[in-house]
Amino acid sequence: MLRPNSETARRGPLRTLLHTVDGVRIDAAYDPGAAATDIGHAPSGHLEDLAIVVAHGFTGDLERPHVRRVADVLARHGAVVTFSFRGHGASGGRSTVGDREVYDLAAAVEWARALGHTRVVTVGFSMGGSVVLRHAALHLGDAGTDAVVAVSAPARWYYRGTAPMRRLHWLVTRPEGRLLGRYGLRTRIHHRDWDPVPTSPVESVPLIAPTPLLIVHGDQDGYFPVDHPRMLADAAPGHAELWLEPGMGHAEHASDDELVARIGAWAVSHAG
């Protein structure tokens, strides 16, 4: 893992390959963003010590325009680490659709810490939203987070109640679907079933406390209806904040710049 000191790290964007604890190489990028201009003339505990780690949705990667747009808006609020989950983009391995991806996120968070950031917020979309919830529940030492944002995240596994989710299950479980994923969507999907089944997002939420948690969901989400975010929020009474966004669809594509900016401001005010 590349570990430049904080002074070197903040001069400009960095690109590196991280290594997970289970031996997968993860493509990652660092943008000092607002941290670069804030150093030296902001009060202690302001933007210069904050990093936001973005966990993209299934079939995304750090080069996708919708992921880059989200990262660019968040960079107004602090440094930003983006990465491609295993099986996506230039990262190695195969996607396990939310299971071992917690190791990918842990490597990205550890990198943000190694770059000198004392406050780290994870922001995940869809599959990435389930990953940030499970990751935060594990309280992984140097890979721990100071605040968590889950956007368009499922509450439970194996959900097939909408047409998009039925198509996604076909993509993941059928050989012809995985072939389409590899060559049509640039996503390499593991052929094995989960064994054991990982802790679900809703089971993870109570374990996140007292870390601040924001749940963001659109009331027009075509993948996961509003019972999912409500179930997540109900699992953490008095701990999680729920934003149910009118007219919003699913994940990064449906998160306009104004919403992403509000998420960035929330991260600044709630981390640490």
Automatic annotation (TrEMBL):
Family statement: Belongs to the AB hydrolase superfamily. FUS2 hydrolase family.
InterPro entries on file: AB_hydrolase_1, AB_hydrolase_fold, FrsA_esterase
GO molecular-function term, one example from the UniProt record: hydrolase activity
Domain AB hydrolase-1: 52-262
Protein name from the UniProt record: Alpha/beta fold hydrolase
Keywords linked to the UniProt accession: Hydrolase
Organism: Streptomyces lannensis
Phylogenetic classification of the source organism: Bacteria, Bacillati, Actinomycetota, Actinomycetes, Kitasatosporales
Origin: domain of life: Bacteria
